Amino acid sequence: MADPTSPEPTFSVTHDSEPSKTLIAGFSSFGLAGLTAVDYLVDNLGLEARGHVRTNGIPSITPFEKGIPRHPIRLYGGADVDVTVLVAEQFVPPVLGDRLAAAILDWTDAVAVSEIAVLAGVPVPHGPDAHQTFYVATDDYRAARLDDGSVPPMEAGFLDGTNASLLERGIDSPLGVGVFVTPVHAQAPDVEAAVRLVDTVESTYDLGVDSEPLASFAAEIRRHYEDLAERIDEREPDGTYDRMYM
Fold first, then answer.
1. Which tens digits make up the pLDDT trace of 149-200?
2. Which residues face 136 on adjacent strands?
3. Which CATH superfamily is domain 10-239 in?
4. Dist CA 115 CA 73 (whole Å)
5. Residue among 196, 184, 167, 171 nearest 242 (CA)
6. Could you tell me which of 8, 31, 56, 175 has the fewest CB atoms within 10 Å of its CB?
């Protein structure tokens, strides 16, 4: 039985400078491909922490590096890079995805962010030919970023959680939203899937990111992300928190 004295889960965004018009996000989910990809973007582009998403009322984690703690959901930017990157190490169950998305969207509305790109892995049965990135995107995002046909559309299925809420807002608003998805395997992180997402971001935004060092980068953080994956499995067994199908 739920504890009636427990606070309702809430999310709020704090950012200490003007963000870019484009937000690229990766969330903690099966395979950790999207999270690994955005973490790598931050490292490769030399971005700095510019803000965070504060959570209240849900079990939290406090990641740290070299003894220094940091917020589990962080925003990064850089003077010479025209994107803001959201790195969400905190696992947020799909049932709370709408609340997290609402906080992000309230912030993007207030600071005039015009488009959001989400990087994600999906645990679907697939063969070698499906080892590529697909998109699910609003009309305006497709026109602005995907008109060259280099990224194919995901044929059919559905999204839930935060990704679904972000896309739904984009359908009926000027906000362009694109979710880039790639099949993932159970190991965490799925490095090959993360490489595919990084390469897709590079081809879409021309940031000057080299994905070659990603394998060694992922090896350095594998233990950290394996521990995170174990926490996710304990809370959402059998991958039930990500229910998108090709």
1. 889 998 877 888 999 999 999 998 999 999 999 998 766 678 889 999 999 9
2. 179
3. PAC-like subunit (3.40.50.10900)
4. 19
5. 184
6. 8
Per residue, the 3-state secondary structure of 150-216, as one string, reads CCCECCCCCCCHHHHHHHHHHHCCCCEEEEEEEECCCCCCCHHHHHHHHHHHHHHHCCCCCCCCHHH
Q: What is the C-alpha separation between 203 and 53, in angstroms, rounded?
A: 28
Does residue 67 contact residue 52 with C-beta atoms inside 8 Å?
A: no
Exposure of 57 in the CB half-sphere (CA atoms within 13 A): 15
Which of 213, 191, 195 is closest to 203 using CA atoms? 195
Question: Which residue is associated with the tokens 């990641």?
Answer: 63
Q: Supply the pLDDT for residue 19.
A: 93
Q: What is the pLDDT of residue 241?
A: 41
String of DSSP letters for 56-83: ESS-----EETTEE--SEEEEEETTEEE
DSSP state of 232: H
Q: Residue written as tokens 């995901």?
A: 154
The kind and range of the H/E element at 116 are strand 115-122
- Residue-wise pLDDT tens digits, 216-243: 665 666 666 666 666 666 665 554 444 4
